[in-house]
Structures are given as structure tokens and as C-alpha cells.
Amino acid sequence: GAGVSQSPRYKVAKRGQDVALRCDPISGHVSLFWYQQALGQGPEFLTYFQNEAQLDKSGLPSDRFFAERPEGSVSTLKIQRTQQEDSAVYLCASSLAGGAYEQYFGPGTRLTVT
Amino acid sequence: DAKTTQPPSMDCAEGRAANLPCNHSTISGNEYVYWYRQIHSQGPQYIIHGLKNNETNEMASLIITEDRKSSTLILPHATLRDTAVYYCIVKTFRANAGKSTFGDGTTLTVKP
What we know:
The complex is a heterodimer of chains A (114) and B (112). Chain A is mostly beta strands.
């Protein structure tokens, strides 16, 4: 009965480094979402997968951000050449079917770029 | 998806009902109202959703006005553990409806 897990929970990167954030969704969940949450603000949508297909990547802030879910389960959010403005909590969520169903969120990865 | 407006903060006494309002005046006919909450340092947690009828589950009740332009989330007996940021979201109920727009939510503080 595990929920959504994310790793690492905390990541400190020097400006210019590449980072990879992992999300393990609930087993059997078709849909997977990534959000970015800046301090004191609500989560901002980044991208959405249905199985291995990335159906919406309209929220990715720049071409430095890339997400994949090659086998329709685990997903990785990669940020290249990190900048200070990338510092945020990155949340992953999964849902049983389409995006209209309730989403189950992981604890997030707090990224700090120094 | 329609935009929502929520008050930035509210207080509630422990044991009393907490009534959290949400305005969604531009909601369209096929859009549902969803509520999530986020306790400090955790990911958001789904609470409830509805289309036009009032809904109740073990966590809360959702009251949607007849014109569907606003709704109220009710926590019937608030406890200190209900202190959180509450988000009202409006979203089309379709299979590939991915994006959810959270806004800044209402910070509910339950006081002893």
C-alpha cells in the first residue's frame, strides 16, 4: 500500500549542474504529473504523462527542463544547467486513470541551487 | 479551466466547523470543483470533488451553489491537525485532463 515516493528528498546543486529527480507512482496508476512549488505559493503544473506518453508539457519553464516516463511507471524530471530560480519543491503526483481523477502526491524533492 | 478566487487566510476554533469559500464565477458546464489541502512540508492531499450536487465524505462536505459560481468546503469539527493550506481547483472531467491550476489557496489556522 505504498504511496507516491520521490527521491532524493533534498538536493543541493551548484549553479550550472544537472540534476535528476525521481518519482515512483502508485502501482497501476496510469497518469503522472510533475509540479513546481516555490516558497509560499501553490503548486504550478509542469507536465503530465498518461502511461509513457507525455500529453502535456506546457508548464515546463524552459528547454532546460525535461521529463520522461519510458516504461509508463517511474518518471524522471531532469533539469540541465540549473539556475538559482530553479530552487523550489518539485512535486510528483499520480492518478488511477485520467487527469480528472484525484491525484495522490508524493512528499516532494526540495531543490536548492547555490 | 476556470479561475478560482479564495481568501488568503482564515481562522477557526478547534471543534467548530470551518467553512472555506471559493469563487469560480466563470465555471463551465463540464467543469468539476476539486478541493485539496497541503499540510506544512507535505504534498497536497485530495479532499473531495463535485459537479453540482452537494457531496460528503469522511473528511468534509462540499456545498456548490445552484448557479455553480461558488462553493464552500466544510470541515464539520476542525482539529489542530486540519491546519493547512486549502486549494480549490476547477477542472474539466475528461480522460486526458492533465493540468490542474492550484492558485495560492486559503491558509486555515485552527486555534485551541
